[in-house]
Every structure is written in C-alpha cells, then in structure tokens.
Fold this protein.
Amino acid sequence: MRWTAMLALAALGAAPAPQAEKPAFSIGAIADAQYADAPDNGQRMYHTAPGKLAAAVADFNRQRLAFVVHLGDFIDKDWASYDAMLPITRRLRHPVHFVLGNHEFAIDDAHKPRVPAKLGMPRRYYSFERQGWLFLVTDGNDLSSYAWPAGSPEHKRSMAAHAALYPDKPLWDGGIGGEQLAWIDGELARADRRKLKVMLFSHFPVWPENPHNLWNAPAVMALLERHPSAKIWLDGHNHDGNYGERAGIHYVNMKAMLDTTETSYARLDFFGDRVELRGTGRQGDLVLRLRPD
C-alpha cells in the first residue's frame, strides 16, 4: 500500500490489515508412495503411484520449500521399481531426503546393500540442519528380518535380538540398534546444548501403541524424553495414519499416498512456537505446538 493511501486511511480512523504470519521455512512430506509393477491388491493401488507422486512433485515445485522428505516405502518390491519412481523425484526443484522403509528391501539379497546409494543417501541414518532445527533421518530397519542379506552378521544379529527380546513383535517391523541409539542420543545432546529444535524422520511409528511400531519403541521414546530438544517424530508405515502426544513430543504418523483414490501428502510450515502440517488429499491438518526448551 502506498504511503499516501496509508495516511488517508489513518485520517479516517482505519488501519492497514495485518499481514498473515509467515513461516521461517517449509518442507514437503510424503509417506508410502509404494510402487510396484504388479496388479492392484485391494487398497494397494499400485498403478496410481507414479501419477500421484508426479502430481505431488508438481505441487511442491510451485511452493517455496527447504526440502522434501519421503518417509519410507518408496517402492513396494523389486529393484526395477526404483527406476520407475526415481526419475519423478528428480523433477523436484528442492532437495529430497529419503527414509528407509521395510519395502525398500523387498528385493533380491544382492541389491540390498545398494539401496541407500540408489536413493542418494549419504548413509542409512544421518542428520542435517535448517534454520535452528536439526533433522535426524533414522533407520528403523537396523534390526530386521528383511533388510540384510540372509546369513550376514547383521541378519544373524537381528534375528537373535528378535528371538531374545521381541518375539511377539511382527517381522514386518524393525528396530533401532544400540549403535544408532547412541548416535541419536549424541545428536540430541548436541541439539540441547545449542538450543536447536529436533524433528526425527522414521518410517516406523513409536506412539501411540500400534502393531506397526518399532520393536523397541519404548526404549526410543525414553531416550527422546530425556532431551528437551526433541519436538516431533514424523513417520509412515501405518497406512491409516495416527497421532499422539507424549511428554510434550508430537508423534505424527502420516497417511499413505498409495492406498487412496485421492492422494496423501503434506506441507509443514515451521514457526517459532509451532509447526503447522497442511495436508493434501486424505492427509488431515495438524497444529503441533512446541513445548518450551
């Protein structure tokens, strides 16, 4: 509004309309695009996955985003499925981060060690910063029946842990091993000292209680609750979605893109005191108020 017009409004007793608060930054998020070159199976409408992903990429490209994250199960099965989906994400004008899901490893054993590199990941789990936030990309397949070649030390360790500690937990889920837990603890401690806020990305939920949760969800939550920097855990895996808050930490399970006649994805807007999740398709909106440090 021009200054002369503002003076005229002031003379009439009117004030300019307040501008809407702008977020510090925004990100895009998708869970479970989960493509396979296979017949549709009930709600799993595989043939729709590339088109839904392409539409989400086009939408994100119209927005100002710091990055986009896919929360695991980018494919449903078969190594060749990556080559059907990755060219679509390469159209993004924003950086993209992938989280490893269980279906990432529904491939032949020979290709399993190559999955992180195929997705352009520096490691299976890692961290990065954006404007006062630390983001942790975690690997919930660290302990699992499927993510390691049969007979490998990692597979033997995983199956021994399941037999001894988690025999009642489904084998389609996984767990976070001790070395990665120590890394998460160290990253959160570093964030505590530096007064950073932390969002953790996982394929697997940990809360509320659900058959899709990590094998060692209680240990993960206990670790998070020791750190005031831990604010939000964002995940997929449970295609129906879920939400819970515990000890001031928000646990957000996004709905799957795959099994809907619409679509499902979201933009997350980061403000000083909250994160607003704005859903598209069947993904609903959420306002996540941040507990004080």
Observations:
- Residues 1-17 have pLDDT under 50 and may be disordered.
- Helices lie at 3-11, 49-61, 80-89, 115-118, 153-165, 178-194, 217-225.
- Residues 21 and 271 are 9 Å apart (CA to CA).
- The longest helix spans residues 178-194.
